[in-house]
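User: I'm curious what two different proteins look like when written out as structure tokens. Can you demonstrate?

Assistant: Sure. I'll show them one after the other, since each token string lines up with its own sequence. Here's the first protein:
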Amino acid sequence: MTRPSANSTRAGAPGLTSETREASSANPAIPAQDAQLIQIVDATLADAARRSGPHLVCHPGCTPCCHGAFAINALDAQRLRQAMEEMAATDPGRATTIATRAHLYLEEFAPDFPGNPETGILDETEEAQQAFEDFANQAPCPALNPESGLCEVYAARPMTCRVFGPPVRSQNSEEEEGLSVCELCFTQATPEEIAAAEMQVPHAEEQALLAQLPAEETIVAFCLLPKLR
């Protein structure tokens, strides 16, 4: 997937530039609209899971999909940062533990980050996109609790995580369209069963909200750090 243009202006909080925060503040309806979007996605996932039956084997503690970095958009970043700010107020010990894992993750991988390490925003160049293909591929997400195997920001998880598992329509590098599924799921399913379980992702609704924000992408780790004052 080709990443949209990234804005590398220095931010007050890593993983969320000042332009993104200002755009959200200028339109206070964005968080409410994002909450509606998440409700739609979760309902769509539940329907796809019902149609998938035993072919969808995702369960708590199954973590292969929680390893390897992937790009997240401005809505995902806002959602994660809001969750961390709320957690810092209600469960500061847990928030500190997550932030510590994020710091350790970035200490190891930030030198190879194909973007701005101050803002956490990914570069848009073709060279940077190619470099990202090999970035932190085997590293566990810092939001993953290594003891329980559970995501500690599950309610605020990025869209990529929310739609992973059931069949989702996507394009490969040659722009050929098809249905992609988790490699652990649908291993015994027929093509017809896979097609019947396709999850209808509300891309248009998400893009309508993203159009109100700067076209910038980051990774999860930057969004788990405390806001800089």
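Here's a second, unrelated protein for contrast:
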Amino acid sequence: MPKFDTPALPATKPMKNPTHVGSFIRAEILDPLSLTVTDAAAILGVGRPALSDLLNGRSDLTANMALRIEKAFGPKMDHLMRMQLTYQLAQARARADEIKVKPYAA
């Protein structure tokens, strides 16, 4: 049986409450460029509601959206997706007590 408790990489301390990637996109891309959500959505070729939901933390960043942001504004999609993953992991950890699963014993 494989052991999953040994990390492949050195352990790092996870962020307790990372920022949703949508907040980063608004603060670091849209605001400095003085872009409205409507203008940014048009540049990205997406609907305004989809971008608004992302910027307001109501939806997750998809790989497709991350690539569009990279092509239009420059931040690498890999970095944006890592931010999204970090956020999701922190959210899951915060709700870990709600998940009732017993450890498997062979």
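A detail about the second structure: The two ends are 9 Å apart (CA to CA).
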